[in-house]
Amino acid sequence: MSKAAKPAYRCGECGWTTVKWVGRCGECQAWGTVEEAGARQGVHVVKPGAVSAPAVPIGQVKAEVVSSRTTGVPELDRVLGGGLVPGAVVLLAGEPGIGKSTLLLEAAARTAQGETVLYVTGEESAAQVRMRADRIGAIEDRLYLAAETDLSALVAHVEKVQPSLLIVDSVQTIGSADATGVPGGVTQVREVAGNLVRLAKERAMSTVLVGHVTKDGTIAGPRVLEHLVDVVLHFEGDRNSRLRLVRAVKNRFGPIDEVGCFDLHERGITGIADPSGLFVSRHPEPVPGTCVTVTIEGTRPIPAELQALVGPTEAPQPRRTSSGLDSYRVAMVLAVMERRLHAKIGKCDVFTATVGGIRLTDPAVDLALMLSVVSAAGDQALPAGLVALGEVGLAGELRPVRDVRRRLAEAARLGFTRALVPTGSLEEEGPRLEAAAKPGRLVALRSPAGRTTPFAPGFEVTEVENVWDALNLMRSAG
Prior knowledge:
Elements: E1 8-11, E2 17-18, E3 34-38, H1 74-80, E4 89-94, H2 100-111, E5 117-121, H3 126-136, E6 143-147, H4 151-161, E7 165-169, H5 186-203, E8 206-211, H6 224-228, E9 231-237, E10 243-251, E11 259-265, E12 268-271, E13 290-297, E14 300-312, E15 320-323, H7 327-340, E16 348-354, H8 366-378, E17 386-388, E18 391-392, E19 398-399, H9 404-413, E20 418-422, H10 425-433, E21 452-456, E22 459-464, H11 467-477
Parallel strand pairs: 4-8, 4-9, 5-6, 5-7, 7-8, 15-16, 17-20, 20-22
Antiparallel strand pairs: 1-2, 1-3, 9-10, 10-11, 11-12, 13-14, 14-16, 18-19, 21-22
């Protein structure tokens, strides 16, 4: 006799099933996504139903031009690809207290100067939001505010106000009576997000959803939430710094490599159109352990200073601490230094950090990181006015990086006088970017390794093939 069928439990993220409930999915390792699915049933045969429109060849489909509307915040428009598209759903995620509500209230007030906006808050009372609006000057007649946590009540507000922009702060606080579980759970978030996306598409209403993040930085709730929306933005920054960055992780209407820079202060939040110089310290004299590089954030080159401190230790395990840098990449660069340059830092504590709270993940910062550590270990400052670009390979070679000309042009604009780049960096980008260069400003010629080349008035570029050449050049220059 066969055993009676046991009730199955299913993961809401990946569909993995088990005969008993567990707190963590055995397939995708997500927590709290396993729910009871009932007894196992056969596959239902779906009968043909009515179609909304007949299928036609793709060449006969009319391409409707959908223009985006500006939010009134240029830095946010930059990340969105020009503004908010009617019917688009944007998910803005970030840590608590990072400034998400302030940014959206600022954008809502700017948009309300010409269109109707509905701001629904589920985390604060209407009076609390009004206090913030008074502080940042976001009081507009066409900006409507409602404090609701029920999805049906939210839809009723939309029916009455008829907004062109809906902001929900946040999607994890809204609950639906048609779904099981508590607000913020997997089932509730999926139900609420699905209904809001459908509502936005039907009414051609731009919608912005605020999302919570977990302690590891990922968006809370089911992963399907990121698939449902059109745009996913991450709002990040250091609590000890006023600088805030908005990055696009997913964007169906624009690029995903753009970044917006903001200054969060007591009167609100302000976009920073030119962040160059915010991440570089001004020293009256060259200081050992510092080196400047130029990273690319979206389409914008930003000079950034790397600092290093190296000191002997008696501890059996020397510390390797980094702030604003990828710890795995720092460990790789230190290993290359020990093996290829025979640097004696195995029994030393090494501390590395960036200036201004910026986080650098660009491989082009490898050479600047290596030079700053070498400078700190030898207590010898690098030449003044130097920037270093290049990715360090495990064999000690230097690999070219993208957009070298734009990086160097930005360094020259800020007053730097010398650059160290991998061999062939200027030659590879020459045919593609030569037409974009301003006549008479950028003069880049191919030079042998270790030779300097004039790039702009008062700015020279030195090409090197490997870390040995770079180190010898810096020692001879120092």
